[in-house]
Amino acid sequence: MPENNLPYHALGEICQHCQSLMLALLAENPQLKRRNYRRGDILLMQGNRQELGYYLEQGMLVSSRVNEEGRVRYKEFYFPTELSLLFAEWLRKTPSYYQISALADAQVVEVPLVLLDSLKWQTLRLRLLEQQLLFKEAKEAFLLLNTLEQRYQFLQQYKANWLEAVSNQDLANYLATTPQALSRLKTRIKQS
Predict the structure, then answer these.
(1) 105: which residues sit within 8 A by CB, 6+ positions away?
(2) Quick one: how far is CA 182 from the chain centroid?
(3) Are 117 and 125 in contact (CB under 8 A)?
(4) Residue 50 near residue 90 (C-beta atoms within 8 A)
(5) What is the pLDDT of residue 1?
């Protein structure tokens, strides 16, 4: 099983300083819109310009890409207290390569990205970028340096909330396997 001191130990962890800055931004901007979405609703359509980030209060979001054959591949899950946005598109001001959708019923606060671009919130912007870089490094190591079994066991030990919140099909998509292969793996681990 993966050791906790390897680069992916911080997979999906939220920087506390970043979280407190995000909460300060929300408190100073009570006019920001809250919206509710149902599972399957698309918040940001693939190919559209991203003007909002989505601070998740309840539920679960996912960023994904739909290919030419209509197959969906998951890139990242977002859980409560996380800000969902596509960083590369935000920085480059380009149309979104991915879409953001609700993986479960969700309540979000819409955060205009112009706020994060403003001088007042540069510390938050920097913290978000640092957090994203660390997360991407962690995810790369997690996916490339481990077998499917090692990745699943890591999630069991360190990210049990992911396993509780994410369906077998959605988790298999994220782990780049089939739901059947993941079910067989789970059965084999339970039997050992």
Answers:
(1) 36, 37, 38, 39, 58, 59
(2) 21
(3) yes
(4) yes
(5) 45
188: phi then psi, degrees, rounded to nearest 5:
-60, -40
Please give the Cα distance from 185 to 61 (Å, whole number).
Answer: 26
With tokens 């953001």, the residue in question is 100
DSSP state letter for 94: -
User: Residue 48 gets which letter from DSSP?
Assistant: S
Give the C-alpha separation, 115 to 173, whole Å.
Answer: 33
pLDDT, tens only, 7-46: 555 555 667 888 899 999 999 999 999 999 999 999 999 9
- Report how far residue 152's alpha carbon sits from residue 175's, in angstroms, rounded to the nearest whole number: 8
Tokens for 83, please give them. Answer: 């800000």
Select the more confidently predicted residue: 141 or 6.
141
21-37 b/e (C-beta count within 10 Å ≥ 16 → b): bbeebeeeeeebeeeeb
pTM of the model: 0.83
Helix axes 122-144, 16-28, angle to 10 degrees: 140
